[in-house]
Amino acid sequence: MRFFSTPAFLLLCFSSLAQTDFRGFKEVYPIGDDANIGYKTSYVASETILFEANPNVKYSFYNNLRATLLDPEKEYGWCAYIHFKPQLRMYTDNSLPVKMPSYRVFLGTQHLFKVREHDLFAISLESGHYSNGQSGSAFSADFKDGSKEGDSLYSLINADTDLSKILNRTSGNFSTNLTELIFNYRFNKLNENYIPYSTHSLKLGTVLYHDGFLGVLPFGGYSDNDIKLYGRWRFLCGYEYVHTFRKDDENKGIRLSLSENLEVIQGAHPSVNPVRSETTLTLFPTKKFPEFGFFVSYVGGHDNYNFRFVDSGSVFFAGITWTSFAGLADSRK
After folding, report:
1. Which end of the chain is more exposed for a tag (fewer CB within 10 A), N or C?
2. Which of 102, 108, 100, 101 minimizes the C-alpha distance to 128?
3. How many independent structural domains does the chain possess?
4. What per-residue string of b and e applies to 30-48 under the rule 16 or more CB within 10 Å gives b?
5. Residue 31: its pLDDT value, please?
6. Contacts of residue 145, Cβ cutoff 8 Å, sequence gap at least 6
């Protein structure tokens, strides 16, 4: 089973990554994570991760951001889109190599404002569903989610319970609706061709787990027992510095990025580490394919793989990444 699943899984991941048009700006302004795939060390000793893939695809219903960025007369642009953001891990287990995958789908909009000379301010608002498609009880593989036996397990959980030790890691259900709001400000320095060669990017945001889909429709939400463990709020902040080399023709267009992202959970169970810190260094090594890069990340704190946020530790993640936004000229002179 493992040998059959591995190539099929790789094909799924790379086909999702490849849906971005290499030749142009087909998605939206880059608030959020880029697609990536790579090797990751493990949070718990009982499991070994072979690799993790994060395909990340946005399809726009309307998008005038490229036109806004390239037109010196336009100061405001916006887009509306659907966002598919799965997260999949391949483990070394023979019978269950892909366990508890994440499925996230959102409706979103982003709004872009040109400010000062060449700086950019943007707002992202996304709302949708996040689940792992499993049917088992979160804390026992012997019972179904929502069954009398599965629900009775929650009465055994108290403030001293270690959720990581009792988590059902093969079929435990995770499900919630959520809404994410992010603000992003970019300080750009432009070269003689009016393309950013130095960018400081600041991000601040929040995520709310809620019951109704899009806040109103009665499906896809959490259970009352689970939300007491999840915590309703997550707060986000981040910084990224991007430098584009331009001293000579050989290195011109090569980019280096250093980023730090922080997430804090409010209201989760006491055994959950509320903090997650992710430091990433990314090199985009060729001007011929500026969207393609190599990254290495150090992550400390809670996991971000659906119900495995109950796990905590320090891990390394390294591989390849693909960005839909490789930098566009600001044509104002």
Report:
1. C
2. 108
3. 1
4. bbbebbbbbebebbbeeee
5. 75
6. 134, 135, 136, 137, 138, 172, 173
So what's the pLDDT on residue 12? 45
Residue 294 in domain: yes
Find all residues with CB under 8 Å of 149, minimum gap 6, and list them: 137, 140, 142, 143
Q: Is residue 147 part of a domain?
A: no
pTM of the model: 0.86
Three-state SS for 142?
Answer: strand
Condensed to tens digits (0 to 9), the pLDDT of residues 272-293 reads 999 999 999 999 987 777 788 9
Length of the chain equals 333
CA distance 56 to 32: 10
| Residue at token pair 């936004």 | 325
Tens digits of residue pLDDT in 60-80: 888 888 888 878 888 999 999
Mean pLDDT, range 105-111, rounded to an integer: 93
Q: Classify residue 168: in a domain, yes or no.
A: no
Domain residue limits at 192: 2-133+174-322
What CATH number is attached to the domain comprising 294? 2.40.230.10
What is residue 201's three-state secondary structure? strand
For residue 9, the model assigns a pLDDT of: 42
Do residues 242 and 255 touch, judged by C-beta distance below 8 A? yes
Both tokens of 319, joined, read 């591989």
Pairing of strands 255-266, 233-244: antiparallel
